[in-house]
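A.,

Following up on our hallway conversation. Structure tokens first:
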């Protein structure tokens, strides 16, 4: 344990759910790392859609998690708890956390940290864990995406969309995305999408079928749900896999089970935040071995939108909710 740490820190919290303006700075004790934990002096924190949903009161933190928003951070390990790898002390890392990222100090499990190479800006490092863990698990583990297959991703210029595009291309997939305007479609193509569909002007079902010679997409990464689900299935291939990771368009869907059966399609979905630490540790290990080298050598770099100071977290949320961002939004906490 380091003995030069301050007793208090600044964090961004809220008293009652509401709009972006409910986020406010507060002074809290610096947390102490427990068994298997490390304390990270935060450089940057990623801003994600679940943070917004939590602020609105619809995504409470799981038991034992910090009520402070923030699911991914970068920074320097300044203290370690019993059982955490001692070599992590003083290392620059990025980490997936269950909460607490919007603060000057944040706890993480040691096994949920990834080493940040010297060539990687800390702002970029903070923009990686949440989308990388989510996409890797859902596209490649739950969706069983394989080289040569076609992946359909909605929200092509979001943090998840850009990460799914880059990982998909790196592992030999054809990637089709949907976006809300022509500018975003062009941005998605620059990221690597093989086809970007303006869903406000074109029927994405017909466009996917046309691009795949009527075969359809093998895997759909769905963040919309609602009435998109049947449309996704309609443009999904035989033996295709439909993976839901968010319900931005509504939690309920009506589907034609006869169609699903005739095409032998599979539907699944997941959330990551409440999964056991052991599961996330195994996921981190697989990512470290198979995907992280692509980030270490710069083959994949997160698409960055804007940075906001920690105390302007509310403005960062408003920017995300406006829907004009392309790529990741991060908070500057104590840039290194």
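Then the amino acids I'd put at each of the 336 positions:
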């Amino acid at each position: 344990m380091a003995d030069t740490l301050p007793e208090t820190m600044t964090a961004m919290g809220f008293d009652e759910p509401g709009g972006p303006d409910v986020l406010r700075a507060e002074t809290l004790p610096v947390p102490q790392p427990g068994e298997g934990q490390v304390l990270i002096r935060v450089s940057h924190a990623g801003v994600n859609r679940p943070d917004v949903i939590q602020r609105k009161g619809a995504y409470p933190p799981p038991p034992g998690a910090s009520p402070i928003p923030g699911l991914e951070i970068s920074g320097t390990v300044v203290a370690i708890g019993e059982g955490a790898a001692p070599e992590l002390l003083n290392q620059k890392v990025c980490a997936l956390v269950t909460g607490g990222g919007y603060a000057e100090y944040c706890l993480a499990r040691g096994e949920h940290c990834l080493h940040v190479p010297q060539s990687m800006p800390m702002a970029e490092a903070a923009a990686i864990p949440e989308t990388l863990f989510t996409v890797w698990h859902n596209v490649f583990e739950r969706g069983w995406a394989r080289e040569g297959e076609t992946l359909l991703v909605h929200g092509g210029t979001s943090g998840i969309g850009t990460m799914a595009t880059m990982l998909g291309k790196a592992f030999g997939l054809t990637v089709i995305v949907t976006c809300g305007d022509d500018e975003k479609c062009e941005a998605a193509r620059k990221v690597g999408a093989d086809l970007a569909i303006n869903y406000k002007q074109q029927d994405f079902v017909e466009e996917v079928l046309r691009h795949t010679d009527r075969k359809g997409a093998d895997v759909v990464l769905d963040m919309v749900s609602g009435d998109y689900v049947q449309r996704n299935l309609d443009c999904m291939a035989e033996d295709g896999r439909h993976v839901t990771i968010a319900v931005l368009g509504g939690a309920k869907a009506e589907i034609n089970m006869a169609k699903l059966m005739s095409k032998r399609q599979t539907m699944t979905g997941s959330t990551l935040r409440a999964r056991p630490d052991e599961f996330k540790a195994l996921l981190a290990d697989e990512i470290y071995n198979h995907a992280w080298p692509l980030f270490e050598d710069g083959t994949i770099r997160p698409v960055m939108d804007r940075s906001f100071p920690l105390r302007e977290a509310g403005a960062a949320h408003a920017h995300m909710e406006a829907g004009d961002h392309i790529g990741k939004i991060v908070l500057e906490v104590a840039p290194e």
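The chain has two domains: 8-128+273-332, 134-269. Curious whether your intuition agrees with the design.

B.
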